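Fill in residues.
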């Protein structure tokens, strides 16, 4: 099949499931801490700066991940893939990160490479087009290269394939205003980002934006904007998709991704973290039915040690994946969420995913749906 994916819920035919192989550490540097700042406590913040010309290089601080967590993650990712196959979905996989590939380096910086696990992030599929989005974390700069065989095969079958402008990602490229704003929507401990180091490659704020900042609704796309980096990217999307899709901007619904704040489960039904989320959405969506699960229970998560870096909020399990308008993949550690969805007449497929808070993603993050049955329907009205 060729690429066809317009929404988040119509019957799923083909999907990419990420790879966890050789995930060894988190690289603690400016882009990483800006991205995850809502869930990093103050004592964990760390900002190695880019080196001034002629000075000794400054490298990121590496935060190792215990091998048992990586092994269990790999087991769970394979379980997600097997569950989808059992539901008659064709599962595609990216290339694995080879153990010999340890670093990405540009003229301005270097960082460790992470495997293509959260494949939702750096790609946006809209209709028959694959759009590689400009990354927000340096270690993920080349991540879509691991999906090149998948994208090339779709291109040969007629898909459009576009790469958005790639950022240089010097310190000056990042808009830190969201992290510096103590009144940011998601709250949590924040502290100012100060003392960015100059680079000969500075060009000012650049486009940085993840596909997971978008919710696709037929011919409409809701895009979350929290920084100038996001706004520039959405400007590009609006011009590129003009006449094919309508972009609806929401501001600071979250720091970046919205798929643990709101997900469209089928036409007329949203899964939301709280009723207040709907107040921030475009007006036509405020009348949709809201599925609001109870707050997550703390005993639904593994216990970690002090040196284990937790990257996401307890609401990560709202990051479900719809297989069709009536069927949803849900973490088997979340019986309250499952029962809530069942009360709204959804069929819940429980799947194991233990270390979602350590690796920053749920079922929606780990998957990239490339073929669904839906088309460019108008769900919000012209």
């Amino acid at each position: 099949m060729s690429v066809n994916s317009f929404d988040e819920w119509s019957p799923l035919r083909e999907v990419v499931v990420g790879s966890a192989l050789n995930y060894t550490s988190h690289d603690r540097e400016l882009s990483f801490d800006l991205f995850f700042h809502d869930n990093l406590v103050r004592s964990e913040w760390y900002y190695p700066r880019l080196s001034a010309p002629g000075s000794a290089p400054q490298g990121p601080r590496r935060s190792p991940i215990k091998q048992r967590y990586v092994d269990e993650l790999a087991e769970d990712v394979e379980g997600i893939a097997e569950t989808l196959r059992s539901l008659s979905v064709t599962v595609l996989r990216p290339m694995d990160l080879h153990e010999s590939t340890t670093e990405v380096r540009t003229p301005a910086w270097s960082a460790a490479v992470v495997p293509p696990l959260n494949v939702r992030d750096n790609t946006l599929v809209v209709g028959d087009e694959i759009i590689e989005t400009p990354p927000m974390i340096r270690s993920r700069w080349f991540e879509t290269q691991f999906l090149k065989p998948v994208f090339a095969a779709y291109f040969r079958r007629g898909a459009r394939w576009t790469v958005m402008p790639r950022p240089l990602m010097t310190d000056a490229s990042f808009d830190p205003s969201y992290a510096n704003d103590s009144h940011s929507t998601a709250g949590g401990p924040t502290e100012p980002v100060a003392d960015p180091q100059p680079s000969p490659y500075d060009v000012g704020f650049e486009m940085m934006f993840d596909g997971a900042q978008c919710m696709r609704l037929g011919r409409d796309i809701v895009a979350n904007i929290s920084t100038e980096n996001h706004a520039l990217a959405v400007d590009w999307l609006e011009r590129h998709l003009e006449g094919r899709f309508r972009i609806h901007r929401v501001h600071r619904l979250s720091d970046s991704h919205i798929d643990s704040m709101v997900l469209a489960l089928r036409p007329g039904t949203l899964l939301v973290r709280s009723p207040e989320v709907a107040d921030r959405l475009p007006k036509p969506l405020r009348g949709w039915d809201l599925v609001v699960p109870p707050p997550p229970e703390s005993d639904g998560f593994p216990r970690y040690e002090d040196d284990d870096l937790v990257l996401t909020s307890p609401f990560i399990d709202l990051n479900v994946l719809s297989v069709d308008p009536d069927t949803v993949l849900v973490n088997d550690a979340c019986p309250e969420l499952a029962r809530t969805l069942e009360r709204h007449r959804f069929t819940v497929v429980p799947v194991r995913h233990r270390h979602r808070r350590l690796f920053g993603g749920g079922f929606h993050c780990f998957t990239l749906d490339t073929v669904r049955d839906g088309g460019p329907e108008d769900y919000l009205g012209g």
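The chain has eight helices and 19 strands.
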